[in-house]
Amino acid sequence: MWLDPFRRSVRQNRMHAERALQVGHFVTDKAFNPKWGFYSPSSNRMITQAPQIEVDRAAARTPSEIAGLSQRIDALEQEVSRLTQRTGVTLCVFSGDLDRLIAAFSIANSAAACGLRTSMFFTFWGTTLLRRPGASSPGKRLIERVFGWLLPAGTSRRRLSSLDMAGMGRGMILREMRRKKIADLDGLLAMAEASGVEVLACSMSMDLMGIRAEELIDYPKLRVCGATQFVDMAADGNVTLFV
Amino acid sequence: MNQTKTIDLTGLKCPGPIVALNTEIRQISGGGELEALSDDPAFELDVKAWCRRTGHELLSVHTADGVIRAHVRRKA
Predict the structure, then answer these.
(1) Which residue, A35, A196, A243, B59, is most buried by CB atoms nearer than 10 A?
(2) How is domain A88-242 classified at the CATH fold level?
(3) What is the pTM of this model?
């Protein structure tokens, strides 16, 4: 009893232990034996298992490790922003039919009007659109010249992919487009030029059909490239279409 | 100062109205308003999508007598 003034109340013990826990010290048990453990206020006894926050604190990293982690976080944030900002539209224009080209250019113009980076890769029959009508180069083999005669050049002489009916369907569609003031292929090409749509010409198709670089149309953002460049642009973009 | 410019896009069909709208909105200053009239039935949805993509603000769009009136404000 005469030790009573030196004994702390249970409430005082508990508050002391809670404070010690907050600052990360270990507490002693009631016999003042230092214990490598923690006082649990809820159960009013010593527990040897440290709370998770203390485990984390014990496993805390050194300042250099923390600096390395923040560098990794910066790099990851940049990567995430690059991936989420992927907004390019890439079209592979394989066909040379009038209706498919109109559809391709409509989509490309809409995408460019929305501020998306738009590219059109013309391959095979689509390459003929990029040939200037009436252009010819010397030194072509016979088969290349035959390609030049058979295939249309530029925006004219294109057939429909279906219901062409030897030109009758084509004539009807063109008349309807004129009546309803729908932009034809020339207008769409001019729109694409004004909107900054990039045009890529397939070098393999040009080589196959004997189209030389000097025979191509006058388009500001025209480049001759291969399939790998198309794949690279498509992989950087969000939308890839095959027309 | 902030007068709303009205552009008449009637007669233009997809993608004409949106391309013309894009060209016109580049010519007004940031925060300026533009009213576009179009008779293309796709224009209503197209202008909403265009605003979502470009970040310009769509103030109102409604149809009357087959003519769609869209009010857009250029982003700052």
Answers:
(1) A243
(2) Hypothetical Protein Ychn; Chain: A, (3.40.1260)
(3) 0.72
